[in-house]
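Let's practice the habit of predicting before peeking. Look at the sequence and jot down your guess about where helices and strands might fall. Then scroll down.
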Amino acid sequence: MRAYLFRGLAGTVFSTGIDRLAKKLQRAGIEASVHSWADRRQTEAEAVQHYRKGKLAGPVILVGHSLGANSANLMANHLASRKIPVGYVATIDPTSSKPGPVGVSADNFRSWDPRARKISGARQFKRRDLNHIQIDKDEEVHARILAMCLPQPGNLRCSQTKIRTKYRKSPAHRFPVNDAFGRTIGRLLNGKKTAAGLVSLLLLTVFQFLGGTTQMLDAKTLSAMQQILTPLCVSLAGWGILGKVEKWVNSIQLADNQITKI
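Done guessing? Here is the structure:
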């Protein structure tokens, strides 16, 4: 069995969950390699060559995130058209709805991001609690993919129709920074704090400039606005950045624990 995994755009920064998943597959005894979404054709050619020379045995597993998910489906179609067995395809937040080969087991994982597309013929897993840069690192998504690659009794830890989407409550998944003002607010602002803070700062700057040049507001009012709103906007952006660091550290710890368990 051989697995090819594809990162998305700027994958070395945002698709790091693909690398962790590859390590888990390797630890489970599956040969796995990670590629850029843009290297699909080269990867396809190598796979076809290896198969014809007898260096590639067993069904091929294809996994990808974002643009890498598109590449995974395209490669699956390419291999299937050349009679190379494809065993399983996992697409994570694909930006194209082009389906994989007919008759091949496939899962499609989607976050709340509007760019994520449904893929006909694949089982749909909607994760409304995750955004585009979180979903490829999620432990439940990894568990499902590993279970499908290693179909052993009792190994399938996730339902075939849905994955748990409620906000995590176990101690291992607690986020003190993100939940600083309560889990409800943390869930409501999940993935939005940094952008909201930076956009608010930009709008405040523009408003102050226009207010000063058009004399809509006097200098005293502008100064008061700046003293009150600027720290709030900076704090919101800082909260978001610290929250992302917290999630990144937590996901690395969970990934290490998962690798140890396999």
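How did you do? DSSP finds eight helices and six strands in the chain.
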